[in-house]
Design a protein that fits this description.
By secondary structure, this protein is α/β, with parallel strands linked by helices. Helices cover about 50% and strands about 10% of the residues. The two termini are about 25 Å apart.
């Protein structure tokens, strides 16, 4: 059973994505974050990884999820380099997810779905270089006193229908991350829904 998960992420939208994914997987684990300075850069130096691992060991986590952006680089290279710096005794419980090129682009994998969940017209979401900045602004505009911008992202991930989420999972880096999360759950004998199951159209 996974009772505590250590999370390392770059920004609030990344945090929201992770929380939304936990909800989709019906994970009830406590989410533990390290001190604020750790994990905010795209690439974590070895020293920061060691500090994070020491912190998570003290907190007794069962799994560590590191989440970063590709930002134009090959996601496979970033993932491999990150994992290579993880201490040997943490390798078996350490997952590294890499968004291509960032979380906002993942949310745009189905623009109509994103627009619907934000309560806007799909035409308000451009393609190309302006997309990421526009989506960040739209998420901020959708936030409120009762729902922060990371809460908005978590809601989008949580409420995206399974048939749409399966289309998201055609994106290789997201599919890899999703499979790694489910594999960790299965190793810990946690029961999780499977959005890859075509019979699930909710």
């Amino acid at each position: 059973m996974i009772r505590k998960i250590g999370l390392i992420y770059q920004d609030r939208h990344s945090a929201g994505f992770l929380r939304g994914l936990c909800d989709r997987l019906e994970c009830k684990a406590t989410l533990v974050v390290p001190p604020a300075a750790i994990g905010k850069t795209q690439v974590m130096p070895r020293r920061q990884i060691r500090l994070a691992w020491k912190y998570f060991q003290h907190k007794g986590v069962d799994l560590v999820v590191r989440f970063t952006d590709a930002d134009g680089s090959r996601w496979e290279d970033i993932q491999r380099d990150e994992i290579s710096r993880v201490p040997d005794d943490a390798q078996s419980i350490w997952i590294c997810g890499v968004a291509v090129n960032n979380v906002e682009e993942w949310l745009c994998l189905d623009v109509n779905n994103l627009a619907n969940l934000l309560g806007i017209e799909a035409s308000a979401i451009p393609s190309g270089d302006a997309q990421t900045g526009t989506v960040k602004r739209l998420i901020f505009q959708n936030s409120s006193i009762d729902e922060s911008s990371d809460d908005v992202v978590a809601r989008i991930v949580r409420k995206t229908p399974a048939r749409v989420f399966r289309r998201w999972l055609q994106q290789p880096s997201l599919l890899s991350f999703y499979k790694d999360c489910r594999a960790a759950a299965m190793r810990a004998e946690c029961q999780t829904p499977n959005d890859l199951d075509s019979s699930n159209n909710e």
